[in-house]
Design goal:
Number of helices: 2
Strand content: over 45%
Strand order of the largest sheet: 1-2-3-5-4
Radius of gyration: 14 Å
Low-confidence stretches: none
Shape: globular
Structural class: alpha+beta
CATH class: Mainly Beta
CATH topology: OB fold (Dihydrolipoamide Acetyltransferase, E2P)
CATH architecture: Beta Barrel
Distance between the termini: 32 Å
Order of helices and strands: HEEEHEE
Helix content: 10-25%
Largest sheet: 5 strands, mixed, barrel
Amino acid sequence: MRLLKRGHLLWILSCCLLAVMLVSTGTVKAVEEEFISGTVAAATKDSSGKVTAVKIVTDKGDYAVANNAAAQELLKLVDSEVDVTGKVAVKDNKKTITVSEFDVVAE
């Protein structure tokens, strides 16, 4: 098993803590699993230009993709058409999907 670097571990713990705080204060509205179709696009890149986060661009708006194992796979599929299933949270009219599964429709 690979050990996480201290910075990565702190980032993960911070994200988890933030998620718990947001859900417990009611500032994030979670809904049932949704199915969306769209195009994987880069949401953020590091200083070397490597994609570090993605979003799904749909005709109903953009969905930021929460970081999990599926998101890590989607990093490799920028510009691909995908069908995605996952839980959607809405905060300040911004949608974030935690992907539970996806299928590539076209690369």
